[in-house]
């Protein structure tokens, strides 16, 4: 078919020529994920947004937004992430990564600008629409935009490649948090808490930073493969040589088993991350450890920072390890080791074993991150690379569900324990035992995953026009 | 050897240089963010 496209954004214009270095693709993907990973740092705005009228977080005005109202902004963004990844996945496969990345940059950057207007007008609905709705669509499209391209460039190291990109999502918050604090400090004199101008600057910075990904990304030619690469060399029953479309993938039990795997792994991880700061302060308080020996608020913030680092490292480490271990085995390790550690943590807390407690939490969070990063490679193994980005998008609805379910379970169980008069480590033990139980469900789902029935595979070669490459 | 033909080594080295620059572009902000988080995490061990 003749190439009649004229736009630089068209998929046909992004096909790499001979000599293109495939190691340019992970930085392009990272440029997108480092930007949208900002979402994990949204809590840095909680106090400033809650004191726009009073100017003092300690003495909020009746007109100030409440923590619940502000928290809804992040929830909308995460729900929209899952929904837009599911809805726009097939469109992404058709138009290619460059157009999708540009759309993500426009939505994500634009979401900040609309959100800034909402803050200036003190209209929370505009903040919800801007950062939550429009920005959330940018999150979803941006998250899946480089995945299938990376898998096509790195069929020999799918876990390494997707691990690098998804590691960026974990790293984005580490950049965004200190950057946002610095910007708010800079603009504090010109606007309430400096938040609205900070949103404008962040929107522009992220839009420009994402352009690096937009204009660097290339897709490989149809017949391209790495030198010396032999497809399915290990002859694993779980690595297909066929291709399943996104519409057919969701008809298979394997998709839904993997959906449960991701749901349980993420829900359990959120259980720890959601409570990390109060958890460690309550468990190792002055009352339990002795006067002056308890974990302070600053040390608890250090604990949260340490967990963020392990979340980031786990994404790359575990996903890369899955190239050698196999995806099913890697998830079995997440769940098997996770069950042991979640069951052990309350005992470590009761015995005031702070060092082992911190080590266990870091390993748990590394496997939480690893669960995200290993999923695209697992999907590619099971369903082929044809529409893996679109299938990944649909799988991310499990993340949205976990984003609602995780905090709900944690708060319900913790509140119930406090009503019963439990304090310290005892107030959290049911949270950890419940999460261990969830991981048992995840382990069973993982063990039940088998090769996809060939009846779901596309017949004959797949084409770009039909949505593949 | 045809002196007019492009040198494949030069092309490879240029592609390698671009990749290094690309990694620096994303790696430097990431390293800054990681270092900031690491410094914050040190408070746990004080």
Account of the 3D structure:
The complex is a heterodimer of chains A (469) and B (46). Chain A folds into 2 domains: 11-216, MFS general substrate transporter like domains (Growth Hormone, Chain: A, Up-down Bundle); 246-456, MFS general substrate transporter like domains (Growth Hormone, Chain: A, Up-down Bundle), CATH 1.20.1250.20. In chain A, 68% of the residues lie in helices and 0% in strands. With 469 residues, chain A is mostly helical. Chain A is globular, with a radius of gyration of 23 Å. Chain A contains 18 helices and no strands. In chain B, 20% of the residues are buried. By secondary structure, chain B is mostly helical.
Give a quick summary of the entry.
Chain A has 469 residues and is an all-alpha fold. Chain A has 18 helices and no strands.
CATH architecture of the largest domain in chain A: Up-down Bundle
SSE-based structural type of chain B: mainly alpha
Q: Output the CATH homologous superfamily of the largest domain in chain A.
A: MFS general substrate transporter like domains
String of helices and strands of chain B: H
Helix content of chain A: 55-70%
Please give the radius of gyration of chain B in angstroms. 20 Å
Percentage of β-strand residues of chain A? under 5%
CATH class type of the largest domain in chain A: Mainly Alpha
Would you report the number of β strands of chain B? Answer: 0
Mean pLDDT of chain B, to the nearest integer, reads 79
Low-confidence stretches of chain B: 1-5
Largest sheet of chain B: none
So how many helices of chain B?
A: 1
Number of strand segments of chain A: 0
What pair of chains forms the biggest interface? A-B, 34 and 27 residues
Oligomer state equals heterodimer
What is the overall silhouette of chain B?
rod-shaped
CATH fold descriptor of the largest domain in chain A: Growth Hormone, Chain: A
Proportion of residues in extended strands of chain B? under 5%
